[in-house]
Amino acid sequence: MKALVYHGPGQKAWEEVPDPTVQADTDAIVRVDAVTICGTDLHILKGDVPAVTDGRTLGHEAVGTVTEVGAGVKNVAVGDRVLVSCITACGSCRFCREGSYGQCLGGGGWILGHLVDGTQAEYVRVPFADTSTFKIPDGVSDEEVLMLADIGPTGYEVGVLNGRVSPGDTVVVVGAGPIGLSVIMGAQLFSPAHIVAVDLADSRLEAAKQFGADVTVNPSRDDAGEVVRALTDGLGADVAVEAVGIPESFEQCTALVRPGGTVANVGVHGAPATLHLEDLWIKNVTITTGLVDTYSTPTLLKLVARHQIDLGRFVTHRFPMSSFLEAYDVFSAASETRALKVVLTR
Predict the structure, then answer these.
(1) Same domain for 115 and 245?
(2) Of 62, 72, 90, 302, which has the maximum CB count within 10 A?
(3) Of the candidates 241, 271, 288, which is a domain's last residue?
(4) 262, 288, 314 — which closes off a domain?
(5) Residue 11 burial (C-beta neighbours within 10 Å; 0-12, 13-18, 19+)
(6) What residues contact 172, with CB distance under 8 A and at least 6 apart?
(7) What is the number of structural domains in the chain?
């Protein structure tokens, strides 16, 4: 089969690799029908995730059809249409029992495209298939549900729920890429007073307005701090969400949050950021970090199936799998191409 293979920082290829096989009785083999590229994949290609080694098939998001299952798989069967979650869960360790699947001690967590071969391929082996896949409701398109493999639950859990967004809050989202837009969409479910999007790309600020931001700030022209203080009687944001993954954006969030507020870090960081405790220690500020656990995926699937949230609008570009390298070029040049999410199909 063909797969998108990592060969060190800056190096990737769409090449022939062996077909995956069942290695444990809890495995399933899934034919990948639709797959996407994540900002985390770009971090990997920059060398930010050294655990990803030469020869690894990338990708951790897919929708597909089960073609084979191990003897111990009970909940999915050959022919089932499933969402392959970005997080794999053994289902029985301490953290899985708490719903913290991202911290799985039993061989799961974020492993696809990281520690084992991932989904940017024609077929993928999914460990712990019973607890790491979700059957897709009738009437939901591949594109819609594909957005629930990662960005949907990530923005909702790590941004909105960790940030403790409440009715009437002023929420600032620094970074209006796909994850930031997911945070904006999820925050709307809690009726905040204002959602402020901060980004250097006007095209992404335009997208933020479409996804629900009522105020947008381009820091190259405007002072985000002044804008937020004007909205909050000088206090600052109730919730500031970091959705970029660079030191400057994290430090900006800590400067924008009010006393007693919350900074929710969602971005994937490849470099240290300065924590200004000399300013923050007296302000009762809560700072949260997190890898998505995907405990919210069943809830979000219901919202998608009932058309209460529209995830299909994330998709801006479509390609056949044979054009994976072109898709990466388009996605990595989002400021020029206006790409949010790209989808590749068989």
Answers:
(1) no
(2) 62
(3) 288
(4) 288
(5) exposed
(6) 196, 198, 224, 228, 237, 239, 240, 241, 253, 256, 257
(7) 2
pTM of the model: 0.94
Residues 11 and 140 in one domain: yes
Tokens 């790209």 correspond to what residue? 342
Quote the tokens at residue 25: 């009785």
What domain range is 7 assigned to? 2-150+293-345
pLDDT per residue rounded down to tens, the chain (346 residues): 999 999 999 999 999 999 999 999 999 999 999 999 998 999 899 998 999 999 999 999 999 999 999 999 999 999 999 999 999 999 999 999 999 999 999 999 999 999 999 999 999 999 999 999 999 998 899 999 999 999 999 999 999 999 999 999 999 999 999 999 999 999 999 999 999 999 999 999 999 999 999 999 999 999 999 999 999 999 999 999 999 999 999 999 999 999 999 999 999 888 899 999 999 999 999 999 999 999 999 999 999 999 999 999 999 999 999 999 999 999 999 989 999 999 999 9
